[in-house]
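User: I want to check something. If I give you two sequences, will you return the structure for each one separately, not as a complex?

Assistant: Yes, each is folded on its own. Here is the first sequence with its structure:
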Amino acid sequence: MVPSIIPFLGKVIGVSLLAIAVIAIGGNILVHYYPTVPGHYSYVVSITGLSDYQGDPITEVVVPIPAIGGSPVFSEKDLQRMISGNCTPLPVMTKDGEMLALRLVGTDLTDISAAKSRDFSKDPSLEEVQEGVFVPSSLWPSETANASPYIIIPDSLRPVSSDPGPISISINVTVFGSTTFGEHRPDYLISIVEQIPPGRTGIIPVEPRIYYRDSFREAFRPLEENVGSRMGAGTGIPAEVIS
């Protein structure tokens, strides 16, 4: 009996080794052709038109920061290390929560910008994006009852001519979805665009708009255009977002 078992065991071992080889090769092929790409957040602030104004020796424009699901997207250190142009980004605490101050030094002002990005391990849901992506928002306790994002333009701004232009503020938070085995999660763009006329200063409420796309090959579209035609059955959520 023993001699007959040995060939059988040899066949079993051979088949097992072949299966392991096939799995290993197949796994390498999947990883090669369908790599896992983590998602990431992008936060970009741009303010133009400041050159039509003068300010104090130190001037700060304060803008909302991104938050997902009640948690800030970036830490204080992240905000301090933003890539910036003509300004110093500084996290500041207001009565409505943490915000970002863009500090200019010198009375002659100029256009400013700041940007930061980081990877994330879990894609945010559509509900988290819709609930509020900026601080302050209705999700955050507020001493002044501000339930929507706002910006703060200092009262010290003075026009340098009799016909100054508006101050244009653009704030974009982009959620680039992850890609796993060739399947790309949705991308979201939450955008604030505000034209501030001369003479308007202080707290200025702003309204974020949400845009959506399935693939980086597509252009962003307003979320309202997608929800009507892309609903998961009975959920009120785009089908791609359902886990």
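And separately, the second sequence with its own structure:
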Amino acid sequence: MRHLHIPGLIALLGATLLATPAGAHPSDHHARTTVPAPTTATVATDQLGPDSVLAVVAHGRFDVAGARGLERSLEVITADGTRHPVWTVAVRQRRGWLPGDFVLRDWRPEMHTALLRVSRGPDGDTLVSYDVTTGATRQVPAPERASTTGLAPDGSGVLMTTYGTPRRAGRVGVLAWDGSKEWLPAQGDGAAITSADGQTLVTTDAKSWWISDLASRTSRRVEVDRFCTPVRWADADSVVATCSAGRGSQLRRVDLDGSSVPLGVRHATRTARNAPPILSDGDVRTVQGRDYYESFGGCGGAVLTRQGAAGEVRVVRVPGDRGALSLVGTRGDDLVIAHIGDDCGSPGARSVLSLFDPVSKDETHLTVLPRRESWSEVLAAAEVRSWIG
């Protein structure tokens, strides 16, 4: 298991545990670590409508060693931009760990439930499900070799992939809340997505996909002929995926029989002269009869682009934008976008959730985070997406 240091996950909720400093031997002195309990709240079911957003917000500079006043919160943001924190934890750096910190690993809209991966520092991680409408919580220790995880749609536990080895591909299984495991006859290299109806699990394995029936516990392998990573469902039988083959990347719609069609141009590793340095597309949304892409270039952040009939790519400028953005969804004629930080430390960049009309260039701010806060994750609350790795 890859435990995270700063910024990391840490906590066995509301408990006190013994933590061994990194590099210490069992005979070394054990320092007792008090893990902060989260402050929780709930929202009404109707606050999780099609225009609501689920977000993880970082409060403070998690990237600065020794920083104080750190918090992280899971929040529901309603259509009017109002923030509703449902899980908030104050954390403090201790021996390079952040007891109480968490990351979001999955979200099931029909269950109103988030899956959080919470770290116990050098002692491992805990997988915690939290129903944001009832406050119900369940948890189970993450196995040491657990790679990516998602909620089992029937509520029985957690779906997971494991790290592969030089001799064997990663495994795919179901981890029950009592800690018992059941392995599926499938393989996985980490990327995965569960269907909206909860019946199907798709895992990737190099240029193949494994399609598992969660009711019958059967799996079949389909050849995709590319390295394709699921993003979200396009419809009940096909997935929007980022695919790579040779020296390029392309957004494609992949059917569950392995066939696929392009959703955009193929980006080469070397861009044309005078073209924006776009290496890949992460998603595409359609408003006002036009396709708009979340495209990635340098600095680890995305920009908004359009593609012409001849394959040319141009950046769509968002007024006042000084950083990267995330393409969250659509609302009527508008794109829902989140302004986020990037790896370049863009000066003056703010964390904002907005409605953006890409034709008129009008932008309406829904939620503006204070200067010391930033988005860790932002996703549409009514949409089933791939597991967050």
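Because they were folded independently, the notes below concern the second chain alone. The radius of gyration is 21 Å. Residues 1-30 have pLDDT under 50 and may be disordered.
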